[in-house]
Specification:
The complex is a heterodimer. By secondary structure, chain A is of the alpha+beta class. Chain A has eleven helices and 24 strands. Chain A has two domains: about 5-235, 2-Layer Sandwich (PmbA/TldD fold); about 240-480, no CATH class. In chain A, about 20% of the residues lie in helices and about 40% in strands. The longest helix of chain A is centred in the N-terminal third of the chain and has 18 residues, at about 135-150. Classes of the chains: A alpha+beta, B alpha+beta. Chains A and B meet through strand 2, strand 3, helix 3, helix 4 and strand 5 of A and strand 2, strand 3, helix 2, strand 4 and strand 6 of B.
Chain lengths: ~500, ~450
């Protein structure tokens, strides 16, 4: 069973000697020069990984990472220090380092810490994979390997891996709030190489979430491996993608990466507080087609991007970002919510105790529309259908964003035709979202395989979208072709 | 004094862990320990935004039992945590499967003494918060003062770091070295008449303080880059020559090093797999990997397996010279280690480059641009659109359009694409203006043709 918040608090107290009195003492040091707010983020993380190649276990790894990150806030400025040494002396020393952001004498009352409870039920799982015998995991990897090789005779290499972790987080703040969470995370990956007459094509696939072993009941290693193998073999048939601006149909699920890049990052409140985002000062304005409603939701059951509490100790939530094309809200952390005078939205996240929190996405998706997915394809005379992706990036300030398609097809006369080789798409956030001319009724969340990077920090996220038609995005292929329009 | 503490402590820690592993029955093992002190100060609009300072340390163990391999790392270095690390590593190795190629580096390839590469700047541990703050403020102020159209800032950061790396193994290797780094970064925004912002950043990063670009120059460069993007629009779709500014060319050197990884070769995940000693690029192109350069960020006396580092030619006048290897992939492919193993405490050795250099040519950047009637001067690439297996390259881009041999109007929201093999072969000019960016030195270079996608 996964730990309850009370179990995690008990773990810190009995295993590591971190109790309310110790936390109060460190917080007193943190506020020793008069900072307005201080917070301790304790993290205890056990992670493991198993990799399988050449039809055998290639390596096994395990790690233990523990420490505390101490943040002192003074206005919009922060002091930050961390230590892996959890002795009271080392923690107080780190707290004094972080305290240097403030320049006064302490006038703060001693902090009185109280453990607070909240409904921690988004990933209360019965059997965390971290407690599963290794032999059972090896069996899953072997099944994946067998299935990929059986899928097609051209599959020349299969590499599979399974990575999991359990994180115990304890957050104690100078306002007295103490909350804890147990955060499991599982990911299974398969990479396949297809080789025909010396022509090699590769593809990878995988999934997971804040789940235990039951993940594999619905997502068998065979199904994940066959998907990787299918994409690799398909690439053997792929032709050069066209160059130019064309209508694009995004398949349901992974295409949510478009939202993550086109609007997600731009709606993180730190950029908007600093007015460096192209969405700054645009709350209430139209930033997308009225077909577009976008939500960031940390409460999805078992999803890779979900959290019970954010890394500043706020209960995470379901936040409406864009409603029928109108900008509704930004994603907030503590500093930005103070700045904007709004409630924290539970989006303050960080990679680890070595990092200070900032506004981040959790699971970001577009709500379902009313179109039949097939109709959206039928509406395109010549364009691209995108299904699988390797990643994306955005320039927050000018709004330009890219995403790389690894499984795509031409659409010709309303029909999906030939597969195309890897291609990058580039657009501008509000421009592309204003060109959304059809939204399917088939909202789907991606399987848990996405990791988001920002300012050098990685956090797990989820994305989702229904089938969507965009009337024009620039497609970075190599095949020169005159542009073609779309029928009504 | 800080130096002495750092250079001995990780070595002792690694040795202690290795000794426990040997006592517990590991026949082959190595241990890695790292300690580092990192400090940085960020400012924005001339106000302090963040000050951080921490010392981190962690230790990792690899054990090999009859060819069965496991690695375990911990940031808890108490006695019981180290004992648990050893126990876990042995347990994991037992459920792993034998691999005839796993093992430590060959002792005869390992370093016997540690060459002096000037990796440690004694001044850096002495740098205080006021100095970091002053440099960051000066850098940002220079950017803000450059032009009245510079209206906003993403901030400036000045960071310093000193660290120590130690490796010991059961063949008797024991080595450690300490190094330092310093870096400065700034981003500012220029405003269009309609209020739209164009941003640009610039940075400098070195082993020694004295080698850093001065803060005013870094700030002014960021401002100039933001200003020159004012009025940017989308280009038309076309096939044209593309001139890569030195910073972009430096990225290309990194791509070459990635495709020249011996692990990618083993996995057949590189388009260079069947092209050893073949012509893969224009005869103008020479790319060297060298971890022995004095005072450079990619330098180190020995690699992550204790193997002596060296100079490896990757491409010589267009001919591909060979792959980079750690000892494991070298054994799998009947090759020799090139001293290219990188090691973190938490994992197996991974292949990577040291310092990369694209050898400069004799043409000035002005001539390289001057010969182009209609083409793209590439200053920004976005995204991950590189397939190392096929060489397909398709990435978002921005830059300046070249008309009649002159830099004309800025362009953005475009894509550049091609196949890396063709792209390398189409290099038809290399500049004499090589510059260092971190661990890479590169000049301007030109490709005779790429596809630009736009409107």
């Amino acid at each position: 069973m996964s730990d309850t918040p009370a179990d995690v608090i008990g773990f810190y107290s009995t295993q590591l000697g971190i109790d309310e009195a110790a936390a109060e003492s460190v917080l007193d040091s943190a506020l020793g020069r008069g900072g307005s707010f201080a917070e301790l983020y304790f993290e205890h993380k056990r992670a493991g990984s198993l990799s399988f190649e050449d039809q055998r276990v290639a390596s096994t790894q395990a790690s233990l990472s523990q420490g505390v990150g101490i943040r002192v806030v003074e206005g919009d400025a922060i002091g930050y220090a961390y230590t892996e040494d959890l002795s009271l002396e080392a923690m107080r020393r780190a707290a004094s380092t972080a305290a240097q952001i403030a320049h006064g004498a302490s006038d703060a009352e001693p902090v009185d810490v109280t453990a607070e409870s909240y409904p921690a039920d988004r990933y209360a799982i019965a059997s965390p994979s971290t407690s599963t015998p290794l032999a059972d995991k090896v069996d899953l990897l072997r099944r994946a390997d067998d299935a990929a090789r059986a899928y097609h005779s051209s599959i020349a290499r299969v590499d599979a891996s399974m990575v999991d972790e359990e994180k115990r987080v304890l957050i104690v703040r100078s306002d007295g709030r103490m909350v804890a969470d147990y955060q499991p995370l599982l990911r299974f990956n398969v990479s396949c190489l297809s080789e025909i007459d010396g022509e090699r094509r590769n593809a990878r696939w995988g999934g997971g979430g804040r789940m235990g072993m039951p993940y594999f009941d619905d997502h068998t290693p065979e199904s994940l491996a066959e998907e990787a193998a299918r994409q690799a073999v398909l690439q053997q048939e792929a032709r050069e993608a066209p160059a130019g601006t064309f209508p694009v149909v995004l398949a349901a699920g992974d295409s949510g990466i478009l939202l993550h890049e086109a609007v997600g990052h731009g709606l993180e409140a730190d950029f908007n507080r600093k007015e460096t985002s192209n969405y700054s000062n645009r709350i209430g304005q139209s930033v997308a087609s009225e077909l577009v409603t976008v939500i960031d939701d940390a409460t999805l059951n078992l999803s890779r991007g979900s959290v019970n509490i954010d890394d500043e100790g706020e209960v995470a939530g379901h936040n409406l970002l864009i409603e029928n094309g109108q900008l509704a809200a930004y994603m907030q952390d503590r500093i930005s919510s103070d700045h904007f005078g709004v409630a924290p939205s539970g989006n303050g996240r960080r990679q680890s105790f070595r990092h200070s929190p900032m506004p981040r996405m959790t699971n970001t998706y577009m709500t379902a529309g009313e179109d039949e997915p097939e109709d959206l394809i039928r509406r395109v005379e010549y364009g691209i259908y995108c299904k699988a992706f390797s990643g994306g990036q955005v320039n927050i300030t000018n709004g330009d964003f890219v995403f790389s398609v690894t499984e795509g097809y031409l659409i010709e006369n309303g029909q999906i035709s030939a597969p195309i080789r890897d291609v990058n798409l580039i657009g501008n956030g509000p421009d592309v979202l204003s060109k959304v001319t059809g939204v399917g009724h088939d909202l789907e969340m991606s399987d848990g395989r996405w990791t988001c990077g920002k300012s050098g920090q990685s956090v797990p996220v989820g994305v989702g979208i229904p089938t969507v038609l965009v009337s024009g995005i620039t497609v970075g292929g190599t095949q020169m072709r005159p542009g073609a329009g779309m029928s009504a | 004094m800080a130096t002495a503490t750092l250079s001995t402590e990780p070595l002792e820690l690694a040795a202690r862990l290795l000794e426990l592993a040997q006592a517990a029955g590991a026949d082959q093992a190595d241990a890695v320990a790292v300690a580092s002190t990192n400090a940085s100060t960020s400012v924005r609009k001339q106000q302090i935004e963040k000050v951080s300072e921490s010392t981190a340390r962690s230790v990792g163990l690899r054990v090999i039992l009859d060819g069965r391999q496991a690695t375990v790392s911990t940031s808890d270095i108490g006695d019981s945590a180290l004992a648990e690390t050893v126990e876990t590593a042995l347990a994991l190795a037992r459920v792993s499967e034998p691999d005839p190629f796993s093992g430590l580096a060959d002792p005869k390839d390992q370093a016997r003494n540690v060459p002096q590469l000037a990796l440690f700047d004694e001044q850096i541990p002495e740098v205080d918060g006021d100095h970091r703050l002053g440099q960051a403020l000066t850098c940002e102020q220079a950017a803000l003062d450059a032009d009245s159209r510079i209206v906003n800032s993403g901030g400036a950061t000045f960071s310093t770091s000193f660290s120590s790396f130690a490796l010991v193994d059961t063949n008797g290797f024991a080595g450690s070295y300490a190094d330092t780094s310093a870096s400065m970064w700034v981003e500012v925004m220029a405003e269009e008449e309609d209020g739209q912002l164009r941003n640009a950043g610039w940075s400098t990063s070195e082993r020694s303080l004295h080698r850093l670009d001065n803060p005013e120059d870094v700030g002014r460069e960021a401002a100039a880059r933001a200003l020159r993007q004012l009025g940017a629009s989308k280009a038309s779709t076309c096939e044209v020559p593309v001139v890569w500014e030195p910073r972009m060319a430096a990225g290309l050197a990194g791509i070459v090093a990635g495709t020249a990884s011996g692990e990618a070769l083993y996995r057949k995940a590189t388009f260079l797999a069947d092209r050893q000693e073949a012509e893969v690029a224009s005869p103008l192109l020479t790319i060297i990997d060298d971890a022995t350069l004095t005072n450079r960020l990619g330098s180190r006396p020995f690699d992550g397996e204790g193997v002596v580092t060296r100079r490896n030619a990757l491409v010589n006048r267009g001919m591909f010279q060979g792959f980079l290897f750690d000892s494991y992939n070298a054994r799998r492919l009947d090759a020799a280690s090139t001293g290219s193993a990188w090691r973190s405490v938490g994992g197996l050795p991974q292949i990577g480059s040291g310092n990369l250099t694209i050898e400069p040519g004799e043409t000035s950047p002005e001539e390289i641009i001057g010969e182009v009637d209609d083409g793209l001067y590439l200053t920004t690439l976005m995204g991950f659109g590189i397939n190392y297996t096929t060489g397909d390259f398709s990435r978002g881009a921005a830059g300046i359009w070249i008309r009649n041999g002159e830099l004309a109007e800025p362009v953005q929201e475009i894509n550049v694409s091609g196949n890396l093999l063709e792209m390398f072969q189409r290099i038809d000019a290399i500049g004499n203006d090589a510059q260092w960016f971190g661990a890479t030195s590169a000049p301007t270079l030109r490709m005779s043709r790429m596809t630009v996608s736009g409107v």
